[in-house]
Amino acid sequence: MNFKQIMKIFFYLIFFSFISLASQEPNEKKLNLIYSGLDTTSIKQHLAFYELYPDSEKGRQALKDAWNIITNENNLKFAINQSLPFSTNFIHALISLVNKQDKKELPILSNEQLLEIEKIGFVLKHKQLKGHRCLDEQEVLKLPYSQIDLARGLFLTEMGTDYQRIRSYEALLDIMALQIMARLPKNASPTQIIYEINYLIFDEMEFRFPPHSTFKENIDKYTFLPSVLDTHQGVCLGVSIIYICLAQRLGLEMEAITPPGHIYVRYRDEHTIINVETTARGIHLDSEEYLSIDTHDLQIRNVKEVIGMAHFNQAAVYWQKKDYQGAYQAYLKAQPYLFHDPLLKEFMGYTLLFINRKEEGEKLLYEIKDSIPSFAMTNSTIANDYFQENIDAEGIKIIFLNSEKERSALLKQKDSIEAVLEKYPHFRAGLIQLAMIWVKLHHHEKALEIFKKYHRLNPSEPEVNYYLAILYFSRLNYTAAWYHLQKSEKFVNSKNYYPKILKELRAQLLIKCPECTQENYYENLYTYR
Description:
By secondary structure, this protein is mainly alpha-helical.
């Protein structure tokens, strides 16, 4: 536990005493004690103290302290000698932003209040971007990504021309950035900036990943910037967006990185890489942890693409509701930001099939069916199987329904996929999903049989060979495990790649059994075929 976490706990212990003190007439000694325990760099704590004791001398001092934190020398040089605007209107606006209750929608500030807050946020770096002056989405789309203000772009694409609401949310982000600046030394290093962003987001404001049961059907709520700021809950994309918005305000260039099905943010220069895992309170994970057998490189997304990804996530909500027309409309909103993205083309293609626009859907799917993304080892088996008549549109729908963790839901999903495979036994994505369901149900023998069926269709598939190696290893059939491990290794090595997951399996196998030779494989095939 670091010093700041200890101080935070200490503050909360003191803060809870406010409740009992507030019901009494606090004496000067008690107020001095509470005031002395405030974090001298925290806008939130000083405004909370003022809100409880606005008529006391210490309460008024706490308000001045909050103002001085916001306008300290690092933040606002032209305002050092400026007196606090003591208007009730301005103070109310500041408190409503900083000490807004979680899960309550941000109050819309008046133009007068916004002008005051925008004035103190003048030094923030995002103000220099052309994108900060955009007044509609079309202006954003015309800009190079290097000039896009991510927050303004996202607000415009979601709120349209509701400028008062847009500016109110921007004011909240500005105050958050000013709070971070107040804790930074002059000429702060990227490491120091990242540390303070992490502290504000995950410790002080307590942004968290939402419970699985709530986010899977409302992923857009935990993706789009206003709702994430209101609830302090966000999926990986939602919190990563806030991180990049704050980094832009602080002048720190950060990258959005998208392994399949995930996103995190990264700082990188010629000497340093700092990965920020936004689903785990900003911890650093080695880049290799995000790679897999099929993912040999990490895809970098620019801020324009990040806006498109927010719409892409929204489409997932419509998929789960089986509203494929709604999903298609969300993809259309994403398209100008992700125009050449193969994954967007693929999912747009599927939704077009589902809404009986077969010719348009097939055109998009044909474009991507044989293309292998630069970060991947293989192409889309689903699109290929569709054109080879190994699956139809209705079968594809089943594959993309969210899988539940509960046993009853898994069994129901298993039955649906088995019905599809009865009609289309060579549907590879269906075979993999069915095998993985059997693994989740702890029926490894059934999973093994399904993976063997897939292997007969495509013996070189590296991921399936890995799963077969794992399953045979668990059954103590080391000869078979070596056979499939080396099949997987042969494929990835042909691409000059050797993932950590295969290295770890090789190390475990060597402990149990010397590596088999090619002759051993064929001599012992009958033991597991």
